[in-house]
Amino acid sequence: MRVLIVGAGIAGLSAARALKLKGVACELVERREQPPTAGAGIFLLGNASRALGDLGLLDGLKSLAYPITAQRILSSSGTVLNDVRTAEVWEHCGPCLSLSRQSLTGILQRSLDPGTVTYGVEAISTVSSGEKRMVRFSDGQEKDYDLVIGAAGVNSPLRNATFGPDAARQIGITCWRTVVQNNGEIDTWTAMLGHGRTLLGIPISERETYIYADCSSTEFGDGSIEVLKSLFRGFAGPLGPIVANLDPTARMHCAPLQEVRMQRWIADRHVLIGDAAHASSPSMAQGAGMAIEDAVVLAELVSRGGPIERILEQFHENRISRIEWVQTKSRSRDKLRSGSSALRNVVLRLFGDALYRRTYEPLTRPLLS
Length: 369
Ligand SMILES: Cc1cc2nc3c(=O)[nH]c(=O)nc-3n(C[C@H](O)[C@H](O)[C@H](O)COP(=O)(O)OP(=O)(O)OC[C@H]3O[C@@H](n4cnc5c(N)ncnc54)[C@H](O)[C@@H]3O)c2cc1C
Prior knowledge:
- This protein has 369 residues and is of the alpha/beta class.
- Helix content is 36%, strand content 27%.
- The protein has a domain at 3-67 and 100-168 and 259-337: 3-Layer(bba) Sandwich (FAD/NAD(P)-binding domain), CATH 3.50.50.
- It contains twelve helices and 19 strands.
- 46% of the residues are buried.
- The structure holds flavin-adenine dinucleotide.
- Flavin-adenine dinucleotide binds at residues 6-12, 29-32, 42-44, 48, 122-123, 151-153, 156-158, 175, 177, 255, 257, 274-276, 282, 285-289, 291.
- Flavin-adenine dinucleotide (FAD) binds next to helix 1, strand 2, strand 3, helix 6 and strand 13.
């Protein structure tokens, strides 16, 4: 079977690794000239680390990651609203871990045979051509494949041609991300909620803490560090002072949050995975988890054999309920975050643990029967 993966982000690299483990060779094209050399942090819940375990990468991951055993939510004034022992919820699934994005993509890249990824080549278009799928590339080549896996991210250029009008939309929240020195004050996943504003700090190593901040896109202005500081000026410790003391030249990643809502991600010999199919707001920290799970499930179904159409139908059937769950719950969390602060704080104090369990427990169930 001739397989092409478009995009060497977390989804595409995971798919290549999963297929390799099943003995299925693939080509992977990435339009960037080289792997990313910068990026902030990423938080992986137990289902994501379990899926990385299925890819044979859990030990490597643990050696580079920081273990997160609790998720703590504070009000902007520093009062603890909820403190969930995450290790208990994910005990039978996988560990919750945080690390730098580069470390995660590095683990995935190193797990592939050298030369698997062709950098600096973009897939321009793809059309169904008889029993194959033809892909046109930026270097002028045209090739036929039995299966094209679109892992080209939230703004996937190939999605619209096959799957209709653009399914990506901005959700009205814009964020900043950076990494600061770990001063020991943030010892676990710690969020602080203000009125329509969220601050998050996650240790990603003994030396570094990942900082995430968001606000309504209308407040984001030019996205400068001055705007960030002024919006979070009223936030108490432990996160407020970190933002207040940010170096004005700190490297900052800014992005409007987007989601992709699609009913189906499969077409004739073409399947979308990861953000290309179902990007969500990061409020459940499930984007990477869903992308890696997609890869594990798809490779397993491919390895079981049968006509491609049936494999893709099975893939869709397997994934749809988990993806819809994550998207629905991510939206509810965004709504809770941006609603009345007083009501939200009461809900989190009284029902925070139960809400956490109800949200995440379905994701601890096995991926495939
Ligand atoms: C602010 C923020 C915070 C987040 N935090 C978390 C978190 O803590 N935990 C978590 O699990 N998830 C998190 N996520 C989500 C997670 O980052 C994404 O779900 C994940 O990175 C998606 O990976 P991907 O491979 O699908 O897409 P991408 O990472 O976007 O990769 C797509 C790749 O395809 C390439 N490409 C695009 N078009 C083409 C083409 N035509 N030809 C060739 N190559 C192409 C691109 O260059 C890119 O390298 C967060 C997201 C955001 C926005």
